[in-house]
């Protein structure tokens, strides 16, 4: 077993999701177990017109300030707002920190696709003079990290990860590596996505990835259920503040959890389908356990990728049952939140840290014990009080990207 890496603590969390604007609103929405899915007027005319949208923000919640919002893609705006919450939650003041020692790493899968779609229509209808001069910075995937760095005065490494639906988890793994290597003292990391558009939704629908339960939106996303038929497209952002554990202790800060291990592998099998049996996802889980210095039997809880698609849930369920036969508790946030694509891994990592800190596991929406075809201990119906000492957060993406983050308590 390899030697554990430098201990890294989660000291701040910022969340903006369809369950609520802010960390506490999102957590309460998760505990409710109610899906945020609804018919989306902006998807009118699509074969599947369901989505999970972020609730309308108050002017105070949505304030970017300085006349900057016009140049920023929506995914970048969400990242900035979530980063501000996370940094404040960590008790840090950008006006007083050494910005050269602060890194920013943020993942996104489709970045500013919504703006490319909109500006393409403008160009087609009225020519080049109608295209926004801000199109490129609104579009390109590095700008969430760039805008957060600008907003916080962070002059350390500023990086973007793009591993499809594992992008946010990849960002956290990279940030942990920067801290362990001594390249920064604070890492502001996570994921942001805002790509709910008619073209993107239609693309997922055409490949058979979306639920077709258009007449019952609230029941559409149902991870691990026997009658699952696809996901509901979503949006959101989560930013975590990471620090070396010794530094966090020296500051006397509250710590949600320790990011103790990260495993990353590639299926190299198919552009969209998981490798049979989840063998390479298993390798990512085992790598994360090895970095954390833990065995499989030490895992008390799994925050599953749980997309609500037939093949992916089957593969993941087989993986969990095979590697973790002691039946740790399992939850899957996409039942409530839908699938926020590149932001999902960061959102689920933040929820895993909260589960450890608050000794509470949120339930899976739209799943009942008699509708569960797998030998898993899925939390259903209501939140479960549980002391979680070690938890795995799974994230898998098109292209065969597998990322598993291993969180533990610090006591």
Helix content: 25-40%
Beta-strand fraction estimate: 15-25%
How is the CATH topology named? Answer: Peroxisomal Thiolase, Chain A, domain 1
Query: What's the overall geometry?
Result: globular
Count the helices. How many? Answer: 12
Rounded Rg: 20 Å
Largest sheet: 12 strands, mixed
SSE string, helix = H, strand = E? EEHEEHEHHHEHEHEHEHEHEHHEEEEE
Average pLDDT level: 95
Termini distance?
A: 22 Å
The secondary structure category is alpha/beta
CATH architecture: 3-Layer(aba) Sandwich
The CATH homologous superfamily corresponds to: Thiolase/Chalcone synthase
Low-confidence stretches: none
Tell me, what is the CATH class? Alpha Beta
Q: What is the subunit organization of this protein?
A: single chain
Structure write-up:
The protein is an alpha/beta fold and 411 residues long. The chain has one domain (9-408): Peroxisomal Thiolase, Chain A, domain 1, CATH 3.40.47.10. It is 32% helix and 20% strand. The chain is built from twelve helices and 16 strands. The protein is globular.
């Amino acid at each position: 077993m390899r030697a554990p890496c430098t201990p890294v603590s989660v000291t701040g969390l910022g969340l903006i999701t369809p369950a609520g604007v802010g960390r506490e609103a999102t957590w309460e929405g998760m505990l409710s177990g109610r899906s945020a899915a609804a018919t989306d007027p902006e998807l009118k005319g699509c074969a599947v017109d369901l989505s999970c949208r972020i609730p309308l923000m108050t002017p105070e919640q949505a304030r970017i300030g300085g006349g900057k919002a016009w140049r920023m893609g929506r995914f970048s705006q969400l990242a900035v707002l979530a980063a501000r919450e996370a940094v404040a939650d960590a008790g840090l003041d950008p006006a007083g920190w050494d910005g050269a020692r602060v890194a920013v790493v943020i993942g996104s899968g489709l970045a500013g696709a919504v703006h490319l779609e909109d500006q393409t229509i403008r160009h087609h209808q009225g020519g080049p003079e109608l295209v926004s001069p801000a199109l490129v910075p609104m579009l390109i995937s590095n700008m969430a990290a760039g805008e957060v760095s600008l907003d916080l005065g962070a002059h350390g490494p500023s990086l973007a990860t793009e591993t499809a639906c594992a992008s946010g988890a990849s960002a956290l793994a990279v940030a942990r590596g920067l801290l362990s290597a001594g390249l920064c003292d604070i890492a502001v990391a996570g994921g942001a996505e805002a790509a709910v558009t008619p073209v993107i939704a239609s693309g997922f629908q055409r490949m058979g990835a979306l639920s077709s339960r258009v007449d019952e939106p609230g029941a559409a996303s149902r991870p691990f259920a026997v009658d699952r038929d696809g996901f509901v497209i979503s949006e959101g952002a989560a930013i975590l503040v990471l620090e070396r554990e010794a530094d966090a202790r020296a500051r006397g800060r509250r710590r949600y959890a320790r990011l103790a291990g990260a495993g990353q592998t590639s299926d190299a099998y198919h552009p969209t389908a998981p490798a049979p049996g989840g063998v390479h996802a298993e390798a990512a889980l085992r790598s994360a356990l090895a970095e954390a210095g833990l065995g499989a039997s030490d895992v008390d809880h799994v925050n599953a990728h749980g997309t609500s698609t037939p093949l992916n849930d089957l593969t993941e369920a087989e993986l969990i049952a095979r590697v973790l036969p002691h039946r740790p508790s399992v939850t899957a946030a996409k039942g409530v939140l839908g699938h926020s694509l590149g932001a999902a891994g960061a959102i689920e990592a933040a929820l895993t840290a909260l589960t450890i800190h608050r000794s509470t596991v949120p339930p899976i929406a739209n799943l009942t014990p008699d509708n569960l075809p797998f030998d898993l201990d899925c939390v259903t119906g209501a939140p479960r009080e549980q002391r979680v000492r070690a938890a795995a957060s799974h994230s898998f993406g098109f292209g065969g990207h597998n990322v598993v983050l291993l969180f533990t308590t610090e006591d």
